[in-house]
Amino acid sequence: MKGKDAKGEKARTHLSREDVLDAAARLVKRDGPRSLTMRGLAAELDTAVTSIYWHVGNRESLLDALVERTLADLGEIRPVGRTPARRVVSVARTLRRRLLDRPHLVAMVHERGLTERMFLPAQRSLVHEVHEAGLRGARAADAVRAVQVLVVGHVLVERNRERAPAQRPGEDELWTATTAERDAALARALAAPLDPEALFTTSVTALVTGLLGPGN
Amino acid sequence: MKGKDAKGEKARTHLSREDVLDAAARLVKRDGPRSLTMRGLAAELDTAVTSIYWHVGNRESLLDALVERTLADLGEIRPVGRTPARRVVSVARTLRRRLLDRPHLVAMVHERGLTERMFLPAQRSLVHEVHEAGLRGARAADAVRAVQVLVVGHVLVERNRERAPAQRPGEDELWTATTAERDAALARALAAPLDPEALFTTSVTALVTGLLGPGN
DNA sequence: ACCTGAACACCGTTCAAGT
DNA sequence: ACCTGAACACCGTTCAAGT
């Protein structure tokens, strides 16, 4: 089996740092960082555990390197739409999509307190659009940041909702017309499973309306 | 040392399940769940590791029990304010305060996908208020959930910002008047450290305005 | 019913030794 | 410069044995 790993990839003369990062990224994307063990990674690479240490130092540095890669991967975002408000919403939606593509890695970026840096590409676009909408100074900065936190908040919540066990007691048992202000449609809506994409659109649209709206 | 633990608490004849949970909750609140080890907990309780297993099964069940406790601890929330919008904002702020009080435990609730359940006490109040504001059916349910996700999103982001290392490159180096739409005040605001409480208030107010506002 | 120590299968990491 | 196996100090967990 020497020279060929479990995935049947090309033979390798030397193990490189890139090889280690590639394999680690693949495993993390599939099963999350928690189940990435140095021994398991070594097996995947068909090498000795200690070789990995030569290339990446230790487990924490390895994960840090993956986070750096993720940050580098998140490129610019081009706003689309006819009004600044629509363009802000479009940036938020694009960003959400990209983050949901790599939920584990986003969580790792978040854990390392680098959420702000992750948003830099989007931030430039958002700054431009809120300025375009007439916001200035601290008010513009607040608007940009409010959108950022909304996006990352939704992504974090959504990611964990996916793998949530059945809720006990289920929301369907909790809300009946009598407990929900005698509003049968409301009770039904509260009992129904949540549609994350729709909720996100509702939230970000309402937020942007509030931030850019005439009241401000 | 038998019969008196490291904190000098009262002697114990029998170790109880409650004793285990109390000690575990204290340690988790201080250092987070990651640094809670069964052996460390046993030392804290001045008992054998294996005794703990008799009372709580295993580490995962122990953490589950702490999460259950946290959920039970989050009580009702009384809305205050003269308009429905203000009362919704007040519920959100109170909720945020309570969650920030136990950040590690909230994160654990979240990891277990029980965020929805955590919100139940607040949900009743929110449902009442948005109904009061004239929202009905699915639209009311969306509004309630949008506020929920905003709150938990902010708490999660805020918690991790606290222990964030210095950002590289710092936002102060990134934003100058020329890059920030030639708006010196905006550049300064973007470079300044974020005030989480202020940003939260701005966000939730804008969101509620957008959700309850005349446009809808 | 409750507690114990020994033992097992894992972990990340270090290090001296190889080529 | 790169790789190796042995060894160390940790984990969570099981289990037979004690009282």
List keywords for this structure.
homodimer; DNA-binding; 216 residues; mainly alpha
General description of the model:
The structure is a homodimer of 216-residue chains. The model of chain A is unreliable at 1-8 (pLDDT under 50). Chain A is an all-alpha fold. Chain A has helices at 17-31, 38-45, 49-56, 59-73, 84-101, 103-111, 115-118, 120-132, 137-162, 171-174, 184-191, 196-212. Chain A is built from twelve helices and no strands. Chains A and B meet through helix 7, helix 8, helix 9, helix 11 and helix 12 of A and helix 7, helix 8, helix 9, helix 11 and helix 12 of B. Chain A binds a DNA duplex (19 and 19 nucleotides) through helix 3.
Helices and strands in order:
Two copies of one chain form a homodimer.
Chain A: H1 17-31, H2 38-45, H3 49-56, H4 59-73, H5 84-101, H6 103-111, H7 115-118, H8 120-132, H9 137-162, H10 171-174, H11 184-191, H12 196-212
Helix pairs in contact in A: 2-3, 4-6, 5-8, 5-9, 5-12, 8-9, 9-12
The first copy, chain A, binds a DNA duplex (19 and 19 nucleotides) through residues 14-15, 37-39, 47-51, 53-55, 58-59.
The greatest inter-chain interface is formed by: A-B, 64 and 64 residues
Cα-atom radius of gyration of chain A: 22 Å
Helix content of chain A: 55-70%
Beta strand % of chain A: under 5%
Order of helices and strands of chain A: HHHHHHHHHHHH
Distance between the termini of chain A: 67 Å
Give the count of helical stretches of chain A: 12
Contiguous low-pLDDT stretches of chain A (5 residues minimum) are 1-8
Strand element count of chain A: 0
Give the class of chain A from helix and strand content and strand pairing.
mainly alpha
